[in-house]
Amino acid sequence: MKAKARRTKTKIAEVKATTHMNSKSLSHLVAQALSLIATTLALTVVSTSLAGNPNPRVLPPNSYPHGKTYGEWAAAWQQWAFSLPVDHSPLFDTADCSAGQVGHVWFLGGTFSSVEVAPNVFLGRATRECTVPIGTALFFPILNNEGSGLEGNGTTEAELLAYNDFIISHAGDLECSVDGVALQDLQNYRVQSPLYTLGPLPENNILQSLFGISGTVGATTPSLTDGFYVMLAPLHTGNHTIHFSGVFTFTAAADGFDFILILDITYHITVQPGSSL
């Protein structure tokens, strides 16, 4: 009886062990299946969003890259730009392009520096080197504008929208290319942000140093941005060239003053091999 009892216990233990192993195997198979389904759904979403996209290397302006709309990324771009002091900012060429960058989306941009090349005609030109981790999307404006209460552009959302619309309605001659391939239909990439907060602004901030607005250190202000923004899908490992340009044109006949600003920006991008962010 004792021997039979021992054999029975041994058999029960074997059955339990087998059941446990089968359970683990089943769980593993279920996990693999769920992972495959998730991957397939993700690819389906991407394929759907890219369907009919004239610029396959650019995420469409109606997409939600990394969980945000283009308008929300435009707001994040402005918050990044204004968070950096002018003596440590890629947009003033006083810092590496990695300054202030976090996550799977990095920001590129134009320049706040310009020279007068003819009466009332200003040229902002920059050529930059930038090394980014593999798997990093790049978000940047071709031409954009920002308005805020602190700058006196308006006290309501409607006023800020109207101010930005006036400026951006004077934008034109938009061009952008990636590795020599021109992007198409750039007018379709105009986006307006939701209302967001700039600041707290650092010492030697853009408003203080560039526009001479006092009392801005540590300040916050409601803001809106409007412009033509592009979200590039991650580039493959190696060297790439991104070029973008545009022109703001104001005339005395239409606007009461003559002013032309030409922006011409080139980035030489190196995508770093190795682990992504």
* Rg, Cα atoms, Å: 26 Å
Compute the number of helices: 5
Structural class: alpha+beta
List how many beta strands DSSP finds.
Answer: 11
Total domains: 2
Largest sheet: 6 strands, mixed
Give the SSE string: HHEEEEHEEEEHEEHE
Which residues form runs of ≥5 with pLDDT under 50? Answer: 1-50
Shape: globular
Distance between the termini: 64 Å
Strand order within the widest sheet?
A: 2-3-11-10-5-6
The helix content is: 25-40%
The fraction of residues in strands falls at 25-35%
- Chain-averaged pLDDT: 85
* Oligomer designation: single chain
Task: Quickly describe the structure.
With 277 residues, the chain is α+β, with helices and mostly antiparallel strands. The protein contains five helices and eleven strands; from the N terminus they run H-H-E-E-E-E-H-E-E-E-E-H-E-E-H-E.
Description:
With 277 residues, this protein is of the alpha+beta class. It folds into 2 domains: 1-51; 58-272, no CATH class. Helices cover 30% and strands 31% of the residues. It contains 5 helices and 11 strands, in the order H-H-E-E-E-E-H-E-E-E-E-H-E-E-H-E. The protein has helices at 2-50, 70-83, 157-168, 206-209, 252-255, and strands at 105-107, 115-118, 121-133, 137-148, 171-178, 181-182, 190-192, 196-198, 221-232, 238-250, 259-272. The strands form 2 sheets. It has a 6-stranded mixed sheet with strand order 2-3-11-10-5-6. Strands 1, 4, 7, 8 and 9 form a 5-stranded mixed sheet that branches. The longest helix has 49 residues, at 2-50. It starts with a helix and ends in a 5-residue tail after the last strand. Residues 1-50 have low confidence and may be disordered.
